[in-house]
Write a structure and sequence with these properties.
The complex is a heterodimer of chains A (200) and B (217). Chain A has 200 residues and is mainly alpha-helical. Chain A is built from ten helices and no strands. Chain A is 76% helix and 0% strand. Chain A is globular. Mean pLDDT of chain A is 84; it is low at 115-123. In chain B, the strands form three sheets. Chain B has a six-stranded antiparallel sheet with strand order 1-2-3-11-5-8, sandwiched between helices. Chain B is elongated. Classes of the chains: A mainly alpha (200), B alpha+beta (217). The complex binds zinc ion.
Chain lengths: 200, 217
């Protein structure tokens, strides 16, 4: 595909997702305020299938994946009031919930489930109006940053966020020193921050 | 609190991706609870997770799973914030909860060497790391050590200096495994740190290697 066409396609996809995020935000708000079950079932249809793919990418069987989806979506219902639109997209929030659920399963006997730990640690920092506006555009900017970084940097991010691999395992898989894996992550982050902080 | 030394962005990425070992996650979460700068980094890093999730093609959900989930929300208990967060104070919230409100001074510290005491913190069996509190007496030098593994240290009270600068309350030393350093605690107060290590720390110089079994870290 010519670069321009793939660029346009990417842009379209991220615009779609931005629209989707606006819808999802409205649904979450409705769930939080009115315990709206209709809104929940719409949100379920919107996000559960992706969440299932996500769990399967992380090594869950289809049955396990559905168990986790169920648990994650119920957390979305019970925690809807905690969703803070200024912190990021609904998908980002759902990602965090799903990830923490998985960790808590692994650490069953831990004295303090991570999900609680994170709830505690998330005081929202005060934002001005401009900043809030900027944050609504963020998912588009993240998508852009991810297409702009070198593929070797995107790869280590994919292996972390999607394949669930610790840095050491990534290093082993790619045959790289640990330090290289870390520096790729750092470089990717620097680019992301630049993109997020530069006005469009 | 004036924080000068922060978490490595690569550590924050691993933390938000959920791939950081439990011991390290605990120290990272503790620093995050004190540090708005790193909180913002973590927030930005989490956006990557949301983006990747958004890029995935969905897999069909069975009717059974859908129906069951929709019926379960009727009985699900809504989440509430924990009643009262522990008072802001000597330790970050995650640690305050783990210690159940016991003050640092009242812990049953284990003396490992003159001027050095440790207190181990519990982790789940899944962790490959070790999590402990370390108290070093005023003016004491830690033996020069390489890490032979990763290590993250959060300063809870007091301060030390090494070639990277001065580390005081809230600062975190998130060092690469090949780094060698020799922290020296300032002379007025003891320095208490929260430490996550991977393998047992292997001290570098031979006298230090002699000390290691003695102090057991
Ligand atoms: Zn910081």
């Amino acid at each position: 595909m010519p670069a321009l066409a793939s660029d346009m396609l990417n842009k379209e996809k991220s615009l779609d997702r931005q629209r989707e995020d606006q819808i999802a935000r409205r649904l979450i708000l409705n769930i939080a305020k009115n315990l709206d079950k209709q809104a929940f079932s719409t949100l379920f249809d919107l996000q559960a299938p992706r969440l299932k793919s996500f769990m399967m990418r992380r090594g869950a069987s289809p049955e396990q994946a559905e168990d986790l989806v169920q648990e994650a979506m119920i957390s979305v219902w019970t925690k809807a009031g905690l969703y803070n639109p200024d912190k990021g997209s609904v998908l980002t929030w759902v990602f965090t919930i799903a990830k923490n659920l998985r960790i808590d399963r692994i650490r069953k006997e831990a004295s303090m489930p991570l999900t609680e730990l994170i709830d505690y640690d998330a005081p929202s920092d005060e934002l001005g109006n401009d900043e809030m506006l900027m944050r609504r555009q963020e998912s588009q900017q993240v998508a852009r940053a991810l297409t702009e970084i070198p593929s070797e940097q995107k790869q280590v991010l994919m292996l972390s966020f999607v394949e669930d691999m610790p840095q050491m395992e990534i290093a082993r898989r790619l045959g790289l020193p640990l330090g290289t894996v870390k520096s790729r992550m750092r470089l990717a982050y620097i680019r992301l921050r630049k993109t997020l902080e530069s006005p469009n | 609190m004036n924080i000068d030394h922060h978490l490595d962005a690569a550590t924050i990425i691993a933390y938000t991706a959920g791939t950081l070992d439990e011991a390290f996650s605990f120290v990272a979460a503790s620093h995050l609870s004190w540090c708005p700068t790193c909180r913002e980094t973590a927030r930005q890093a989490a956006l990557i997770g949301g983006e990747f999730l958004g890029e995935l093609e969905g897999t069909k959900i069975s009717e059974g799973c859908r129906n069951q989930t929709l019926s379960m929300i009727d009985t699900a208990t809504l989440h509430r914030f924990p009643n009262s967060p522990p008072a802001r104070g000597e330790v970050p919230n995650p640690l305050a909860r783990l210690l159940g409100g016991v003050a640092l001074a009242d812990l049953k510290w284990k003396r490992k060497a003159p001027g050095l005491a440790l207190f181990d913190l519990p982790l789940s069996a899944a962790s490959h790391g070790r999590l402990f509190l370390m108290r070093i007496a005023p003016g004491k030098a830690m033996p020069e050590h390489g890490h032979g593994g990763e290590e993250i240290t959060l300063i809870l009270s007091g301060a030390y200096n090494d070639k990277f600068g001065r580390f005081a309350k809230g600062d975190v030393a998130d060092l690469d495994e090949d780094v060698e350093h020799q922290p020296i605690v300032e002379k007025d107060f003891a320095c208490v740190c929260l430490v996550a290590t991977e393998a047992p720390t292997r001290f570098k110089s031979w006298p230090a290697r002699l000390i290691q079994p003695l102090i057991g870290i």
